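Q: Could you fold this chain for me?
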Amino acid sequence: MKTASLAFILTLFLFPSILYAHGVRGRMGKGGIVVIAEYDTGEPMSYAKVVITAPDKKMPFQIGRTDRNGRFCFFPDTPGKWKVVISDGMGHQLQLIVPINKKMEISSKYYKKNTLLNGMSKFQRAIIGLSLIFGISGIFMGWKSRRQKF
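A: Sure. Below is the predicted structure, expressed as structure tokens.
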């Protein structure tokens, strides 16, 4: 028994690399896709659940949460249309389809030009909608009243 213990201790001193466990290391990388989730008021969807699914896959590629500014970053590994679903757990859900090209970047065709309604608040869009409804109704009723003879 003493011989086995002595041999074991001697082996540990002679070959200390046996004792080394696996280590870790880190490095910085470039690239990635950043998704930003906001409510229509401009407030970020902080700490909302994010599920990212790769093209033509059923299992999630990545699951996580947005940061306090509503941002989430992921690194796609294949080109195609990636599905991003962001849910705050209170009934609000955002679904995005992110097209990734062969350079692992967002496809340039994805970016749309700003339209008039993109920069407006929900209240402003509601006022424009009501104005259109009343305006078209007024034109229709005015045209109809001109045709009637008294």
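A (continued): DSSP finds two helices and six strands in the chain.
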